[in-house]
Amino acid sequence: CNYTREKVQVTDERIAGETWFAWNERTIFKPSCVRCHAGPNASGGVDLSSYEAIVASNVVVPFKPADSVLLAVMEAGDMPPE
User: Fold this and answer.
1) Considering just the CA atoms, what is the radius of gyration of the chain in Å?
2) What's the start-to-end Cα distance of the chain, in Å?
3) Contact predicate 49/38, CB 8 Å
4) What is d(CA 12, CA 70) in angstroms, rounded to the nearest whole number?
5) DSSP 14
6) d(CA 6, CA 60)
7) CB 63 within 8 A of CB 69
8) What's the rounded Cα separation, in Å, for the pair 42 and 53?
9) What is the DSSP string of 1-70?
10) What would the pLDDT profile of 51-75 be if each residue is shown by its tens digit?
């Protein structure tokens, strides 16, 4: 994984009409996660390559971020690995 917390500076600079998920996908998931977490052989069985794949991976609870494993793992510093 080539991601470090210092490399990603999160701001809310969404393109007009872009959904919140599309912004996260463009600025976080695609540049930082999908190298390891995409497709049928995704690391840990967690595919972050599309909304449908993320929901199917059961690491997020739509509309309930506090209940989402993905957020908890990232906040705990367990992902991405250094």
Assistant:
1) 12
2) 8
3) yes
4) 20
5) P
6) 24
7) no
8) 11
9) ----TTT------PPTT--HHHHHIIIIIHHHTTTTS-STT-GGG---SSHHHHHHTTS--TT-GGG-HH
10) 889 888 889 887 888 898 988 888 8
The neighbour count for residue 16, using CB atoms within 10 Å, is 4
pLDDT tens figures, 10-42 = 455 667 777 878 888 888 888 888 889 999 999
pTM of the model: 0.69
Contact 68, 60 (CB under 8 A): yes
What token pair was written down for 59? 């690491």
Q: Scanning the structure block, which residue is given the tokens 């367990």? A: 78
Could you tell me the two tokens for 45?
């069985």
Is residue 48 a contact partner of residue 34, using CB atoms and an 8 Å limit?
A: yes
